[in-house]
């Protein structure tokens, strides 16, 4: 996939895989919104990336936060071409997990992706392009 000139949002980009994705995208001449629950970490990554990146802190399980990410990307760089749903959390240890632990895991690891897709896919269909990339770890596959 050609990424030069594309606009991307990467969630969970304050560290780890998300930060690595942001660095690679900018190295390929994309513009990136670096998103993370830890806004300070997102800001550090974006500062390292320079003019091709901007940071937004917030919980991507919240549809308003995702809408803000998209609005920021459009305002700063143009329409979003790529969405990297990388933010994720580990759940509880199993069947003894609380309802709240299960609900939080489902909100971040599943519903956040659904909400982002609802906001992005209609525009991508209209434009005829767009990519939604989900990160899944071995831990996610094992549960």
Notes on the structure:
- The chain is an alpha/beta fold.
- The chain has one domain: NAD(P)-binding Rossmann-like Domain (Rossmann fold, 3-Layer(aba) Sandwich), CATH 3.40.50.720.
- It is built from five helices and five strands.
- The chain has a five-stranded parallel sheet with strand order 3-2-1-4-5, with helices on both faces.
- Strand 1 (7-10), helix 1 (16-27) and strand 2 (31-36) form a beta-alpha-beta unit.
- The chain is globular and about 45 Å long.
- The relative contact order is 0.16.
- The model has no long low-confidence stretch (mean pLDDT 94).
Total number of beta strands: 5
Low-confidence region ranges: none
SS element count, helices? 5
Topology as a string of helices (H) and strands (E)? EHEHEHEHEH
Mean pLDDT across all amino acids = 94
CATH class: Alpha Beta
Q: Determine the structural class based on helices, strands and strand pairing.
A: alpha/beta
What is the number of domains? 1
Share of residues in strands: 15-25%
Globally, the shape reads globular
Lateral strand order in the biggest sheet: 3-2-1-4-5
Taking all Cα atoms into account, the compactness measure Rg is 15 Å
Would you give the CATH topology? Answer: Rossmann fold
The helical percent reads 40-55%
Characterize the largest beta sheet: strand count, sense, and whether it forms a barrel. Answer: 5 strands, parallel
Euclidean distance between termini CA atoms: 31 Å
Instruction: Tell me what the CATH architecture is.
Output: 3-Layer(aba) Sandwich
The CATH superfamily title: NAD(P)-binding Rossmann-like Domain
């Amino acid at each position: 996939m050609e990424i030069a000139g594309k606009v991307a949002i990467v969630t969970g980009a304050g560290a780890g895989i998300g930060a690595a994705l942001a660095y690679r995208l900018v190295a390929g001449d994309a513009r990136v919104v670096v998103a993370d629950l830890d806004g300070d970490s997102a800001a550090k990554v974006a500062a390292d990336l320079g003019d091709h990146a901007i940071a937004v802190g917030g919980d991507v399980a919240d549809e308003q936060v995702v809408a803000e990410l998209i609005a920021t990307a459009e305002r700063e760089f143009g329409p979003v071409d790529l969405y990297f749903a990388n933010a994720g959390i580990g759940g509880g240890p199993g069947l003894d997990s609380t309802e709240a632990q299960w609900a939080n895991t489902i909100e971040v690891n599943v519903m956040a992706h659904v909400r982002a897709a609802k906001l992005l896919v209609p525009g991508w269909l209209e434009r005829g392009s767009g990519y939604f990339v989900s990160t899944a770890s071995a831990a996610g596959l094992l549960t």
